[in-house]
Design a protein that fits this description.
With 307 residues, the chain is α+β, with helices and mostly antiparallel strands. Helix content is 25%, strand content 29%. This is JAB domain-containing protein.
Length: 307
């Protein structure tokens, strides 16, 4: 439940490919699929990045992969190399949304249950204009969805050198005759614009699911939906949101506005009881708890802060 970051492994040239595809569609969404493996601690290792097929649909706020292209490509990657379809990537081009949209969240969570996946990796790319130059920098975020957790985790990239040996073997075998090997767009505009880590970094945590006790309020489907709504509301209203869990399994959030640090503790019987709210580590006392605000705690905080 902690918002500490997991590790996602990817080859340098696959980052070049994604950046190139994104820059080729500066005003429309583009995307593709991710094939690879999971480590014993649950981290994704991307072995092949698939780009958009020729019949993909690129729109301002949506991308639809060419299904026939995906099926034919997956057949080779799975049957010949034993890869798994571990995720997808798409761009939010210049719309300033460097995380999954509500639509993305609903789509992935539905797919987890529909296809009985334990987890799924979603990568979101963005374009950031470079001042005084008619060009862009590319960012790429990694987000891990798990069926056992109510919200996604944010990752940091371990960038492996050069190219995937599986892709190089495919190129040698098929001599570029397969359309899924065509990647005319390459860019290193991601350099310095992604969150990187190292395999030896001890601060990363395992992405193994956390067991949740039966009595906890967010164990149920309704409780998970409420927790997700609270998280989304605070994440859209404040900066650097972290969702954490106490040994007692109570949830609390830490976040910031322009001048202050905030903390919100959700009690064991939330939303029947009111949350505890701290401003710069000082508890704020308030009398009237309106349960209608249980999904929109930002409104309560704005009221307490006189905003």
């Amino acid at each position: 439940m902690s918002q500490e970051r997991f590790k996602a492994l990817i080859y340098k040239k696959d980052l070049d490919r994604i950046s190139g595809w994104v820059m080729a569609h500066p005003n429309l969404e583009t995307g593709g699929d991710l094939f690879g493996f999971w480590t014993h601690t649950g981290s994704p290792i991307i072995q092949f990045v698939l780009g958009p097929g020729v019949n993909s649909k690129h729109n301002e706020f949506s991308f639809y992969q060419d299904k026939e292209f995906l099926v034919q490509s997956a057949e080779i990657l799975i049957n010949e190399y034993g890869l798994q379809h571990i995720g997808e990537w798409h761009s939010h081009h210049q719309i300033d949304l460097a995380k999954p949209s509500n639509g993305d969240i609903n789509t992935v969570n539905s797919a987890l249950h529909k296809h009985n996946f334990d987890k799924f990796l979603l990568c979101i790319a963005n374009l950031e204009p470079v001042e005084d130059i008619d060009s862009f920098n590319t960012s790429l975020g990694a987000f891990l969805f798990e069926k056992s957790n109510s919200y996604y985790k944010t990752g940091a990239w371990v960038v492996l050198p050069e190219d995937s040996p599986i892709r190089m073997n495919l190129i040698q075998k098929y001599k570029w005759k397969k359309s899924f090997l065509h990647d005319p767009f390459h860019s290193e505009s991601w350099r310095g614009n992604i969150l990187e880590t190292k395999l030896s970094d001890p601060t990363m945590i395992s992405t193994k699911p956390i067991e949740i006790s039966n009595h906890v309020w967010y164990r149920s489907f309704e409780g998970q939906a409420l927790l997700r709504a609270v998280h989304n509301d605070l994440d859209e209203s404040f900066q650097n949101l972290k969702m954490l869990i106490k040994p007692s399994e109570d949830i609390y959030f830490v976040f910031y506005d322009q001048q202050s640090k905030w903390r919100v503790d959700l009690p064991v019987d939330y939303p029947l009881s009111c949350p505890e709210i701290f401003l710069n580590d000082e508890k704020i006392e308030f009398i009237n708890w309106d349960r209608r605000l249980s999904r929109e705690l930002s409104r309560l905080i704005f009221n307490l802060n006189g905003i």
